[in-house]
Amino acid sequence: MKALSIKNLSYSYKSNWSWRRFPVLHDLNLEVEEGETFGFLGHNGAGKTTTIKCILRLIKSRPGAEIAIFGKDNKNIESRKSIGYLPEQPYFYDNLKVSELMDLYAVLMEINPKEKRAAIEEALESVNISHKISSKMRNMSKGQIQRIGMAQAILGKPKLLILDEPFSGLDPVGRKEFADLILKLKKEGSTILMSSHILSDVESICDRAAILLDGKLEGIYELSDLDPTLGNKKYELTILGDACPDELKSISVENTVRNNRNTFLIEDKDKAHKALSVCNNTGIEVISFNPVRTSLEDLFIKLVKEK
Amino acid sequence: MKTSNIIHITLSTFRETIRSKILYSVFFFVIALVALSAFFGSVTLGKQEIVVKNFGLFSIAFFTVAFAVISGASLVYKELSKKTIYNILSKSVSRLEFLLGKYFGMLITVCVMLFLMGLGLILFNYLFEKKFDLLLIQAYFGIFCQLIIVCALAIFFSTIVVTPLLSGAFAFGLFLAGRSTDFMLEFIQRNGVEGGASLGLTWIHKVLPHLNKLDYSDMTVYGQVVSSTSFIWAFLYSIAYAGVLLVLANFFFGKKEFN
């Protein structure tokens, strides 16, 4: 069964002062498999958050759209039982304590009253914020609020986790902890849909990613092998010393000298091996020789530029 | 509809509101006004305790209504601007459950205010009459019935008007109109308004909440006892009126998009 299926999703919003509607999403179709981690990428205003809001029925998609969560139509309120959601820049009731807030969400998530306390403690411990259980929300920092947002999202281990910019407001340690937590949840069987601007994080966490540009789906990519998508493979050769032999320079497309090391970027496999033999024959000391993996960032920038 | 969802949203709303600073400001303002009534009583001809009761009941009614309007009118706006609503409605919670939870949470808060201020007035009045005037409770019941309607009015306007200032103005305007419905009837009769205008005004009179009928302050101050039948009708009228408003509020809220 698909964890999430979106068919023909279009959305346009109405301005407060006119009847004109502004299109945001155009005929979006995508499916997220059960147990996978799916990245949702796009520039600001591409329609990522709008798609998430449509999934959660916070806004209503235009007629003809079909959204199903584990086979259940999202118009059916029960379909949301299996969802944990972390909004972008979450905010909570200022005067409530963390424990009161988590208690409210536990009830709304229909967690068994006997298991509620343990579930709350587990969720707070997962994001290292359990020591703040008696504090009021108004005394929390941005990063702490993000952690509580994550805790309420994973409360009761929902089958589908929707994370909108989960790393925003977090320091590097927090980012690493969140990334580890997401991978742990995936291991435990959760399906994760996350939107993020931090492409390296998406790349290290997600199995597949969809790129959305101006409300249109540009493509869905397997992140384990992005190179065929860009159609080329590059190699990086680093030698000791700042000398730049002409033969190596003519083979490479780019070279940079830093800290007494010269790095050449070579676009072709044969040329790369030729460069290695040049080094062997001339006695140049090779520090490293690596194939350069195409990053998600390369792909994303390429698509944006083409657009 | 899940009762547990409504109860827990009610509880959270109550906790959130009861800890707000505005509530404490209102509370202390009322205490100051009631204390001031003793001064007015001492410089006024007639019985001092009547002035204290009159002034006290007016202050309690006015400030509980004002608090209900202020916090109720900004309810949806605040939830939207702070995005706190996203964490609730993204779970299996219907919009009606959310509205009812917010409504009851607000109502309980103003009832706690009413209880504490009412108790304060009874104790304060003891200083002048040297007895606990429990008849004041019937006036509190009238205020409670008015609050049932005012909270629903505030919620209703917060679902259809974007800015809290405007929804507050509408809710408070309707509260004032509701307190003056008898004047409207008198106006129609005295000025011989006829035809379409008379029909229109009569309908407006029927539609407006008859809050003046729920005000037992004068009767209480002058020691008249309100019949139990009046209490029952007042209560039934209030919950029916609030019920209609909440159904309408749910209709508009259901159409709202949380962009």
Overall geometry of chain B: globular
Percent of residues in beta strands of chain A: 25-35%
Largest sheet of chain B: none
Query: Tell me about the biggest sheet of chain A?
Result: 6 strands, mixed
Label the overall shape of chain A: globular
Distance between the termini of chain B: 25 Å
Strand order of the largest sheet of chain A: 6-7-8-3-9-10
Task: List segments of chain A where confidence is low: pLDDT < 50 over at least 5 consecutive residues.
Answer: none
Domain unit count of chain B: 1
- The overall strand count of chain A is 14
Strand percentage of chain B lies at: under 5%
SS element count, helices of chain B: 12
Helix/strand class of chain A: alpha/beta
Radius of gyration of chain B: 20 Å
**Structure class of chain B:** mainly alpha
> Could you report the average pLDDT of chain B, rounded to the nearest whole number?
89
Description:
- The complex is a heterodimer of chains A (307) and B (259).
- Chain A is 34% helix and 29% strand.
- With 307 residues, chain A is of the alpha/beta class.
- By secondary structure, chain B is mostly helical.
- Chain B has one domain.
- Chain B is built from twelve helices and no strands.
- In chain B, α3 runs antiparallel to α8.
- The interface between A and B is medium-sized, with 36 and 27 residues.
